[in-house]
Amino acid sequence: MTSQNIQAIRAAYAGFASRDIEAVLAVMRPDVEWVHPDGMADYGLGGTKRGHAGIREFLARVPAVLGGMRLAPREFVEAGDRVVVFGTREVTSRRGTTAELDFVHSWTMRDGRAARMEDIFDTVAFHRLIES
């Protein structure tokens, strides 16, 4: 049986897959924190974004940096209020180079909705892909 928290996080990934931002935001609290590695600041993608407006701004910035991206969550691990997702993302640069990069997403849940999402990945490999 899948927990309510994992079901919510799976719904977020389904929203990402269908490019349905409203479905993604429905899983998140209005005061959510969205944390991306500071190493992505050169591309306007680093740091902590707050609330639905911050996430919308972040997601609107992504197409200026990348040609495309698809997330493939593989494993969901739950401990208390935390859901950790291990997966890969297929990322395409603006020039058409595609690579598969690993990620770890750490979701902190509160009352069935995401209060924080931290995206953990190899920023050096991501930079190389963006510049390719």
Query: What percent of residues are in strands?
Result: over 45%
Uncertain stretches: none
Q: What best-fitting shape do the alpha-carbon axes yield?
A: globular
This entry's quaternary arrangement is single chain
Q: pLDDT average, as an integer?
A: 96
Computed structural class: alpha+beta
Order of helices and strands: HHEEHEEEEH
How many H/I helices? 4
The biggest beta sheet, please? 6 strands, mixed
Rounded radius of gyration (Å): 14 Å
The separation of the N and C termini measures 43 Å
Report the strand count: 6
Helix content: 25-40%
The spatial strand order of the largest sheet comes to 2-1-6-5-4-3
Write the layout of secondary structure elements.
Elements: H1 4-17, H2 21-26, E1 28-36, E2 47-50, H3 51-65, E3 66-79, E4 82-93, E5 98-110, E6 113-120, H4 123-131
Parallel strand pairs: 1-6
Antiparallel strand pairs: 1-2, 3-4, 4-5, 5-6
3D structure, described in words:
With 132 residues, the chain is α+β, with helices and mostly antiparallel strands. 33% of the residues lie in helices and 45% in strands. The protein has four helices and six strands. The protein has helices spanning 4-17, 21-26, 51-65, 123-131; strands at 28-36, 47-50, 66-79, 82-93, 98-110, 113-120. A six-stranded mixed β-sheet has the order 2-1-6-5-4-3. Strand 4 (82-93) and strand 5 form a beta hairpin. The longest helix has 15 residues, at 51-65. The chain starts with a helix and ends with a helix. The model has no long low-confidence stretch (mean pLDDT 96).
